[in-house]
């Protein structure tokens, strides 16, 4: 009763008495800046999801497409390496193009549409069942050139949009959505190839590349919706090639760089030839092929957060030793058995140890680098890594051509790759020890690969100390 008297006698503003509707909470008004940010964040997530569908269902299947055309295992291996290097060289025009256009958004959207065009033209080649390899290499180079050219500009642009206070949480959520989208595209491609493999499987690739092109056009539309702050300057220095290399040598251990390149050569001696081995020599179905690739990607996806906590607790050098030694036997273990259950388990382990190695290399590579130079250094990193990939791929191709592309030759290649990785361990002795990072940088998947699960690039906005 006392509570009732208190409630009745409580003083109310006179405006409430005159207008009972004012008892309802006032509608929250959103500032224009907050509204723009909300739309930008949605567009960034939408771009990541649709881009990842393209990665899963598009370029991933290029080696399988080359094999279906009957162009051979060596050509299928080269299509996964040479266009990456040529594309990495094409990305060097990115700073000039952004300056000429006066807009990062225009350049990135244009490059995204170029990627979609390359995929659409690949769909045409599949429809016509073109038997020559050079147009496929040309379009694959355009795909990689346009894709890698967006990386540095996108990193700078997105850093100007997403506030520092929410970057870690926002990009962590975006990465999970992107990874799920990549797996979705990968599995959808395998299911379509498996279900429609009736008259001519080559023409089914027309559907896959067409879907990938549409996904990239959707991604481009999301990119076009994002705002570009007029004060988007982030203090980024545009360094020439020699100046970039000089800065890299001052800030990162030369032994780390040599080790990185040596591992790339050793790994890609066999890496590009897992697809032809599985599809041509083992004769597995497309769905089984996709499941094996997906298991490696899934293993890496699950392990990355765990290895991030490991790095914080025990340091980056120890993480690199775990990953660097863990990847050594992976190639040779393919010689043990052809059982799908065994290979599936091996792929999960492969994804786990590759996650440790790649996270450690990202943390070591960007440790101590000036924030203003990271975009230029990422460009050089892409070129150096792609060069080593091609070097390893050409070595593997020479060995296959010398021995002959037989079942035993592929196994010899896998064993040789493991032996070469053993030799890289001597370079680890001088790797500097660094403390665990306060935050693990997020990455974005640019390709899915049978040998190591995926190719990842760091999102520089999340790599801050």
CATH architecture: Up-down Bundle
Order of helices and strands: HHHHHHHHHHHHHHHHHHHEE
Shape by Cα distribution: globular
Low-pLDDT segments? 1-27
Average pLDDT: 84
Write down how many β-strands occur, each being a DSSP E stretch of 2 or more residues: 2
The whole-angstrom Rg is 25 Å
Hey, roughly how much beta strand do the residues contain? Answer: under 5%
- Which CATH top level class fits? Mainly Alpha
In this structure, how is the largest beta sheet organized?
Answer: 2 strands, antiparallel
Strand line-up across the major sheet: 1-2
Protein structure class: mainly alpha
How are the secondary structure elements laid out?
Layout: H1 2-9, H2 14-18, H3 32-57, H4 62-68, H5 73-78, H6 82-90, H7 94-101, H8 104-128, H9 134-161, H10 167-195, H11 201-225, H12 241-251, H13 254-268, H14 274-281, H15 286-314, H16 316-326, H17 340-366, H18 374-403, H19 407-424, E1 443-449, E2 453-458
Antiparallel strand pairs: 1-2
Notes on the protein architecture:
By secondary structure, the chain is mainly α. The protein has one domain (about 35-230, about 235-460): Up-down Bundle (Growth Hormone, Chain: A), CATH 1.20.1250.20. Helix content is about 70%, strand content about 5%. It has 19 helices and two strands. It has a two-stranded antiparallel sheet. Strand 1 and strand 2 form a beta hairpin. Helix 10 (about 165-195) runs antiparallel to helix 11. The longest helix is centred in the last third of the chain and has 30 residues, at about 375-405. It is globular and about 65 Å long. The model is unreliable at about 1-25 (pLDDT under 50).
């Amino acid at each position: 009763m006392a509570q009732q008297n208190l409630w009745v006698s409580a003083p109310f503003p006179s405006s409430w008495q005159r207008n009972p509707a004012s008892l309802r909470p006032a509608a929250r008004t959103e500032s224009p800046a907050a509204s723009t940010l909300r739309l930008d964040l949605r567009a960034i997530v939408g771009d990541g999801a649709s881009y990842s569908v393209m990665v899963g269902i598009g370029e991933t299947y290029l080696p399988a497409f080359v094999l279906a055309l009957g162009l051979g295992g060596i050509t299928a291996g080269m299509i996964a390496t040479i266009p990456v290097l040529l594309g990495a060289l094409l990305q060097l025009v990115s700073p000039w193009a952004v300056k000429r256009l006066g807009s990062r958004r225009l350049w990135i959207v244009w490059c995204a549409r170029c990627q979609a065009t390359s995929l659409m033209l690949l769909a045409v080649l599949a429809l016509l069942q073109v038997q020559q390899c050079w147009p496929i290499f040309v379009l694959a180079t355009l795909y990689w050139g346009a894709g890698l050219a967006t990386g540095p500009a996108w990193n700078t642009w997105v850093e100007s949009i997403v506030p520092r206070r929410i970057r870690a949480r926002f990009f962590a959520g975006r990465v999970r959505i992107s990874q799920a989208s990549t797996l979705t595209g990968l599995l959808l491609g395998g299911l379509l190839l498996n279900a429609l493999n009736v008259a001519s499987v080559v023409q089914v690739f027309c559907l896959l590349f067409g879907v990938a092109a549409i996904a990239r056009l959707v991604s481009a539309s999301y990119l076009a919706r994002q705002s570009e702050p007029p004060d988007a300057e982030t203090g980024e220095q545009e360094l020439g090639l020699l100046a970039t290399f000089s800065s890299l040598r001052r800030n990162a251990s030369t032994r780390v760089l040599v080790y990185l390149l040596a591992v790339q050569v050793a790994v890609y001696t066999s890496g590009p030839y897992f697809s032809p081995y599985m599809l041509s020599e083992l004769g597995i179905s497309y769905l089984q092929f996709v499941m094996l690739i997906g298991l490696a990607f899934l293993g890496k996806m699950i392990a990355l957060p765990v290895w991030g906590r490991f790095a914080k607790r025990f340091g980056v050098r120890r993480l690199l030793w775990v990953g660097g030694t863990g990847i050594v036997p992976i190639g040779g273990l393919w010689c043990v058995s052809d059982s799908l259950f065994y290979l599936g388990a091996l792929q999960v382990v492969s994804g786990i140890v590759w996650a440790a190695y790649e996270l450690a290399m990202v943390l070591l590579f960007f440790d101590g680098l000036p924030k203003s130079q990271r975009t230029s250094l990422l460009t050089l990193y892409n070129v150096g890594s792609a060069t080593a990939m091609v070097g390893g791929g050409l070595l593997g191709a020479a060995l296959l051509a010398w021995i002959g592309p037989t079942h035993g030759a592929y196994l010899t290649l896998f064993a040789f790759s493991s032996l070469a990785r053993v030799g890289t361990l001597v370079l680890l002795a001088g790797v500097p020890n660094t403390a665990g990072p306060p935050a693990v940088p997020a990455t974005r998947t640019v390709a899915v690969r049978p040998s190591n699960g995926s190719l990842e690039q760091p999102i520089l906005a999340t790599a801050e100390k």
